[in-house]
Every structure is written in structure tokens, then in C-alpha cells.
TrEMBL record:
This is ABC-type polar-amino-acid transporter. GO terms for molecular function: ATP binding; ATP hydrolysis activity; ATPase-coupled polar amino acid-transporter activity. Coiled coil: none annotated. Keywords: ATP-binding, Nucleotide-binding, Transport. It comes from Flexivirga aerilata. The keyword Nucleotide-binding applies. Residues 2-246 form the ABC transporter domain.
Amino acid sequence: MVRALNVSKHFHGVEVLKGIDLDVAPGEVVCLLGPSGSGKTTFLRCINQLETIDGGRIWVDDDLLGLEEKNGRLHRLHDKRIAKQRREIGMVFQRFNLFPHKTAIANVMEAPVQVRGVDKATARAEAMALLERVGLGERSHHYPSQLSGGQQQRVAIARALAMKPKLMLFDEPTSALDPELVGEVLDVMRELADDGMTMIVVTHEIAFARDVADRVVFMDGGVEVESGPAREVIANPQHERTKSFLRRILAEQNESAVPQGEVAPGGVASGTAQGGAAQGTAAE
Ligand SMILES: Nc1ncnc2c1ncn2[C@@H]1O[C@H](COP(=O)(O)OP(=O)(O)O)[C@@H](O)[C@H]1O
Ligand SMILES: [Mg+2]
């Protein structure tokens, strides 16, 4: 579904992606882990063509993004073709960015009606079904200000799904939420994964990555440091940078999520990754 080859990107001469490769099969869930500043958001934004890449290639569903080959030369696609490619990818951000003056259902209907030209009755019925799917059927006529952060984020997920994307990108979708609201959003994402959606998820929720992702990719400094089956990489990271990152994240999450005394020392290395961590959030 996604193939990224040697993707590079710089901002003002600073290289923030230094040749990233990634393959994601249809229905696969890949979590991107890594410290702040490692290039995770930039990489997602490149896949969604919110940024243009400086080198490499990205295909989504065999469609080369942003470029076409004519007479053996690559040309930038017209904006209309780029917009069409972007419509097939749903993105959920850390901040939900709902329209504040529109109800939940109006937020979800907006793009299908305005962009895909779906008639309003159909769009409304589809939006309602999506809100029910994310557990918000009862709240369809609430405004964002009347919804909790977790509910707003679930509306944002429904809104992205309304465009019937082939691929969903999540950029730290729970990191702006109060801890008690994280679980409800992760549950929706987990169901989406179970339904076969192809997903790339940037997250610090290690328990979610371990339980839901097929693979994790650990990035640091604009490169992939290591990747592999989620459980293997999380339980038994090979590189020092991955180890220290996981130790740090799990320690932070243990501090906030698990009552004192339940935390086994040693974290990941001793195989306690399935304990502690986000037990209060993702694990159930
Ligand atoms: N629009 C931008 N202009 C300049 N620098 C940027 C821009 N976006 C990101 N960066 C820089 O690129 C690096 C990677 O950022 P980002 O992709 O946001 O990392 P992450 O999501 O892993 O925290 C950081 O050093 C950041 O400051
Ligand atoms: Mg980021």
C-alpha cells in the first residue's frame, strides 16, 4: 500500500529525513517511534504531500506521489492530481482541528459534500454511521466545545474516514489528551486496525504499538535506526538508541499510569514491557 524509497527532506539546509525507506502492506499497521525531532511528523507530512520531498520516491497503492513520468523524465503533477492523491489518505493530528462552529456530524459531512460531491442525505447517513462506529452516535449534534478531547479526537477520526481513505496516518493522536481519555481513542484505532485499515501511527503509546502494530520502526535523527515485528523490537531492541528511548518512555508512562510499587525495575530489557506502560490506557 505504501512504498517509500530513500526519502529525503531538508528545511533551510538542515536535512531532517536522510533517506527513509518504508514498505507497508495492505491492512498492515506500522508504528513509528522515536524521540522528538527525529522526523516522524515530517515523514507523515511527506506521505500526505503536505511537504514535497527533496529526494527519493513515495508510492501509495502503486501511484507515484506528486510526480509523473513523461518521455523518460519526471514532472511534477498538476495540483488537481495531487489533490486527488491526497484525498485517498486520511490524517489525524495531535490537535483535532475540528470546525468549532459546526456540530460533530457537520464536521464529518463537510469534506464528502464539498470535496467529493456526495449529496447531503447520503453524506449525513454515512457520517452518522461513522459517528456510531467511533461511539459518538448520541453526540452527533454537539459542538466541539461541548465534547471532551477524546470525543473530539474520535470525531476527527470519523471525519478522516468519511473520505473513504485507503490509508490512515496518525500523528501522536493521543498526546494532547488527558491520560484518562487516551484509552477511548486508542480503542477506536484498534478497531480500525482489526477492520483491516492500513495505518501508519506515530505514537509514544508503547503498549498500543506492541499490541496493535504489526511492525514498529524506530527513527532517530532522520534515519531508521531499527525496525521489525512490534513485539520483538519492543521486548528486545537491538540498538542502544532504541533501548534508551524505550526505557525513558516506559519510565515516564509507568510514573503516570501505574500505582507505585507495581513497576518492575528494568523496563523493557527484562521483558516487563507487557506490564506497566500504558496499562491504564491502551492495554485493556
Ligand atoms: N516547517 C519546518 N521548517 C523548519 N524546520 C522544520 C519544519 N518542520 C520540522 N522541522 C524540523 O525538522 C526536524 C524534525 O521535525 P519533526 O518531523 O516534527 O520531528 P518529530 O515529529 O519526530 O518530533 C526538527 O528538527 C524540526 O525542528
Ligand atoms: Mg511530531
